[in-house]
Amino acid sequence: MGYKTASPDRYGLLKGYARENRKNATLAEDVLWNYLRRGVSGVKFLRQHVIGDYIVDFVSRHEGLVVEVDGGYHSEPRQQESDELREEELERMGYHVIRFSNEEVMNDIESVLDEIRERLSPDPSL
């Protein structure tokens, strides 16, 4: 995975949206970012980063891990379908996607961080 992860023809537009998303983050996104920006297991994360035609909440490009924080509308059938297609496309690009609800982040941040750390740790069975 290289550093140029955005579609060149849409990058300017998406970069502007990503900037707005950073300015208008949800409380749950802000809470998680306060942990991720300090490094989880020594891994650097970016927030509201453009990958292809998508803006992901958080990504470790080096580790190929995307972390999404989902609000209530993600439980709607239409949004779930869209999220599934987005996740499949990101995985085709070499990323692994994990999702957490706003409630998980706000009510059990340690479990969220443990899950992220687990995904960052190499599989000892390999």
Key terms:
4-stranded mixed β-sheet; 45% helix; alpha+beta; 126 residues; 5 helices; 20% strand
Give your account of this protein's structure.
By secondary structure, the protein is of the alpha+beta class. Helix content is 45%, strand content 20%. A 4-stranded mixed sheet has the order 1-2-3-4, sandwiched between helices. The model has no long low-confidence stretch (mean pLDDT 85).
Helix fraction by DSSP (H/I, runs of at least 4) = 40-55%
Please state the average pLDDT score: 85
Judged by helices, strands and strand pairing, the structural class is alpha+beta
Oligomerization category of the chains in this entry = single chain
Which helices and strands appear, and what pairs or packs with what?
Elements: H1 11-23, H2 27-36, E1 46-51, E2 54-60, E3 65-70, H3 77-92, E4 96-101, H4 102-107, H5 109-120
Parallel strand pairs: 3-4
Antiparallel strand pairs: 1-2, 2-3
Provide a brief overview of the structure:
The protein has five helices and four strands. The protein is α+β, with helices and mostly antiparallel strands and 126 residues long.
